[in-house]
Amino acid sequence: MDTDRPEGEAGPPIEPRSGDGHGNAPAGGAAEPTDASAADRRHEQLLAGLSRIERLLGEVVEQQQQVQREQQVREFSLADVFASLTQVVAIAAMLGAVLAMLQSPPDRGLAALALLGAIAVQGLSLTLFMLRRK
């Protein structure tokens, strides 16, 4: 049987189509205007629904692009660059302290100063790395 509704769709019973089976009106007269207006309303509702879906998908794409831009900014920040540089300075100061202690006439003052400097620069480096996580 040829009906207007797909199989399995709920709703009131639909009368079989008349005509040639391709949506054309019977040869005896034109289709009723109420059927055409109902089909037009369904078509407009479908278009409105598709328009809403398209708009929502556009908003989702915008949100995803914004999240991606924020991640890129977070991945490369000035605080990370300075933290890395201070980490290198802290390692150099620590090596300087070890070398000062290993010298034949030990220079305890220079070794202590290099060690305290390494500790201070290491603290600065950790602070800069923590700024990124905030």
Layout of strands and helices, then pairs:
Layout (H helix, E strand, L loop, with lengths): L32 H43 L2 H25 L5 H26 L1
- Elements, N to C (H/E): HHH
Q: How is the biggest beta sheet arranged?
A: none
Strand content: under 5%
Portion of residues within helices: over 70%
Number of strands: 0
Mean pLDDT score = 77
Query: What coarse outline follows from CA principal-axis ratios?
Result: rod-shaped
Instruction: Please give the count of helices.
Output: 3
Radius of gyration: 38 Å
Question: Structural class of the secondary structure composition?
Answer: mainly alpha
Amino- and carboxy-terminal Cα gap = 67 Å
Flag low-confidence runs: none
General description of the model:
The protein has 134 residues and is mainly alpha-helical. Helices cover 70% and strands 0% of the residues. It has 3 helices and no strands. The chain has helices at 33-75, 78-102, 108-133. The chain starts with 32 loop residues before the first helix and ends with a helix.
